[in-house]
Amino acid sequence: MNVTDRRAPAPTPVAHRYCAFRLGDACFAVPADGVVEVLRGGRLTTVPLAPEGVLGLLHLRGRIVPVIDPGVRLGLASGARDRATHLVIALQDDWYGLLIDEMLDVVEISEDHIDPSTSSLSEGSGEALAGVFAAPDRLVHLLDPQRMIHSLVRPRPPFSERQGVHHG
């Protein structure tokens, strides 16, 4: 009697694409599906009384984009303010700019190669880190943009409610 193995095949790990960038000597990445574009240059307008990590506002194709220094949120030493590369990401209906030192590349990472974050950067950065990937040439800290930005900017009403003028 011939008995065949009827176990289900192991599921194939899912791979996701990430945009990797450098902040100081560290490498970080955010999910690529949320990246709108990478800008080099652009004039920021400062915002009085803005939280420490909010550097200013950028006007981009009719949108007002808050620009954030993720190094502040991650507890890294703040670099020179003359950096001019912005990674623009979309979170729901809003866009945010992340001030970065250098855009590296787009990498595909399998879920089974992501280790849980140990929050080794700073005490407050743990909730912003979604995991760590050990690439052959560097350690890549995977960020959750929603959690990183949430603590720096207050929620705004949906984009559709901000259209036009309301008189109450």
Q: Roughly what fraction of the amino acids lie in strands?
A: 35-45%
Just name the CATH architecture.
Beta Barrel
Kindly report how far apart the N and C termini lie.
Answer: 82 Å
The H-and-E topology, N to C, reads as EEEEEHEEEEEEH
Query: Helix count, per DSSP?
Result: 2
Record field, number of beta strands = 11
CATH superfamily: CheA-289, Domain 4
State the name of the first-level CATH class: Mainly Beta
**Residue-averaged pLDDT:** 81
Helix content: under 10%
Outline the low-pLDDT stretches: none
Helix/strand/pairing category: mainly beta
Secondary structure blueprint with pairings:
Elements: E1 15-23, E2 26-31, E3 35-40, E4 54-60, E5 63-68, H1 70-73, E6 85-91, E7 94-100, E8 102-110, E9 114-115, E10 129-134, E11 139-143, H2 145-150
Parallel strand pairs: 2-11, 5-7
Antiparallel strand pairs: 1-2, 1-8, 3-6, 4-5, 6-7, 9-10, 10-11
